[in-house]
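Friendly challenge for the regulars: who can give me the structure tokens for this chain first? No prize, just bragging rights.
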Amino acid sequence: MRMGDGGQGTVDGVQSIDTMPKVYRVPLSLKIWLAISGCFAVLLAILVLIGVWNSLVNLSWITLLTFSGIILLGVAASYLFFWPLFRIEITEHGIGSYRFGHENSLRWDEIGEIKSKGIEGDLTLISHTGDKKIKVSAQVAGFEEILDRLREKRPDLCRQRVFHGGVGLQILLVLMGLLLIAVGLNGLREGHWPSLILVVFGCAPIVFIFDLVRLLDFQGNELKIKKAFRERKIPGLEIKEIWLREISTNESISYAVLVELKKGKPIPLGNFREGAPILYNSLKLWLKEQRNRESNLELH
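First reply, four minutes later:
Bragging rights claimed.
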């Protein structure tokens, strides 16, 4: 993979060790699960088509099952064949991606903007001109290492200091709560007093919304965590470390940021519109700056 004019060098036809790319891929377990999920989805579609087809054309079940088996094997083979082709490569000069036959790369100094979505958690690198983009999937093994490398090479891209809570989860909780309350009230009108439990359960997610972080601000020397009715201020020197916590399921991998304090319980931070990758890198850089400032004060 080429990283632009400043790409991988060679010495007497042999690739230099310092420019050998570090490769990141999707874990095998996730590939297998995606293949199984894909086959299951296709199987449901096939069963529906078989029902329609068999009502129009009278075919034997052996023929239909053979046809279904061929399609399922094709889907499984496609997942297991194409996913290993997806990879992220990093060298001293830049970052590149290979996705289903499409190769793209950016030098570190070519990156003009980074974006992330709160739900997906993936990271998108955009060139200064906007004509080239690289999407780094949160599903690749070593995602945190990729973020650390980006922060090392381009700290200027990790200086966002205000983050906003995502509204998607809040809307979902409100709808869930209102639905339970509506069903419960309808039951109460008909004299079913056990429906009161549904009303109580419906109020719970709505109350929970008020405990979600609305705004995160660390423009100064403090980390300010603002909720609906309260605000907590944590001096940077009271923070021990910033971690990227992996949340794994069979279907996918997501991330949340964990603030470890020198005294007290760790503080989990998630569900921000700007995305966990950008929050993680911004907090890490901010904490490093706080420590450097304190060290300079002690020296003087």
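Confidence is low (pLDDT under 50) at residues 4-18. The helical segments are 28-56, 61-82, 143-153, 168-189, 196-209, 276-299. Your move, everyone else.
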